[in-house]
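Researcher: Final request for today, and then I'll write up notes for the group meeting. The sequence and the SMILES for pyridoxal-5'-phosphate follow.
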Amino acid sequence: MNLNFLQRKLDERVDKGNIRSLKTNDLLADFVSNDYLGLSGNAELARIIHKKCGDEHVPNGGTGSRLLSGNHRWYPEVEEDLIGVLKAESVLLFNSGYAANQALVSAVADSGDTILYDQLSHVCLKEGAWLSRAETTAFRHNDLEDLEARLKRVTGRCFVLTETIFSMDGDVAPIREMIELCEKYDAYLIVDEAHSTGCYGSGGGGLLIEQELQGRVFARVYTFGKGMGVHGACVAGPKVLTDFLINFGRPFIYTTSLPPHSVIAIAESFHFLYNHLFLQQDLQSKIALFRKYWPNSVSETAIQPILIGSNERARKISNELQESGLDVRPILSPTVKSGTERLRISLHVHNSDEEIRFLAEKLLALC
Ligand SMILES: Cc1ncc(COP(=O)(O)O)c(C=O)c1O
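Model: Predicted protein-pyridoxal-5'-phosphate complex:
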């Protein structure tokens, strides 16, 4: 079998300095994971989840689509719990944030509709848009004027896609103003809360809940593999929307459901966070500390981008940081636009103050 066609494309990446490969670095200080609140590695939470799974007979796998054998009783129970936490009329679990966004956007928008998405939206939102039969256009990142100009030109139904906290820049969308614009132009706003889930809002319900805006958007997406430290995702919104997704969301219908222990882990992680809400405050203290030591910071969240501007240099600095025991990874083009290659620093409650100071010192020396 001739596999040169694959090798040629990999070689092109090597030549451009942006070849991707897998690494494990368990022994380094974690400045890379999305486990902002340390819940993934939290031994007490692990014991609670294992006990709960051990006390009941929990199947090892989902066994089928939720529409067939895979709808174990924990799914609706946990969705009911999440309705309370997320202050939603209805909640539908998905296997991942990627699947949730792709299913939601590709299913709700049809031919004749328009999707306007923030140009820095996560690829799963964009992919959902491209898979739909709607017209799709990007608006300039967090730019209300550009969004309004485009909303004015739309005829027919319009969906607007954004994130509360952007995954590569850590900046926050002007969400209240976007809601007002969407209300003014009758557009349906879809908000991805991936990087705010757990870290903000009472009970970890995210930034929209913190600002009491949850009732003014069409749909919200929460992911559980980041701040919640477990796995999976959900869409929160009107009941008619979740009924619609059960019928038309292909990544919901044609896949094996999450293993039930993951579903139990989601519920237990939210219960645990409810009883340990000080973790949100701890995270804010770590962010403030980093920003004190690194005054060039442009982000107020746990995601701190350090723009480097070339793949080669970003990779080199990241290697040097790793040699010093700090797990900082480069984000290279084409993942980000050429010229905006960066180090993406993630801050966590489990980063010691000393590690944060050491990281900032190293950055000041290397960048
Ligand atoms: C903004 C955003 N949305 C969605 C996702 C996908 O979520 P998941 O990792 O649960 O598939 C990510 C993952 O990095 C993300 O950053």
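Model: Residues 260-275 form the longest helix (16 residues). The mean pLDDT is 96.
Researcher: Thanks, that's everything.
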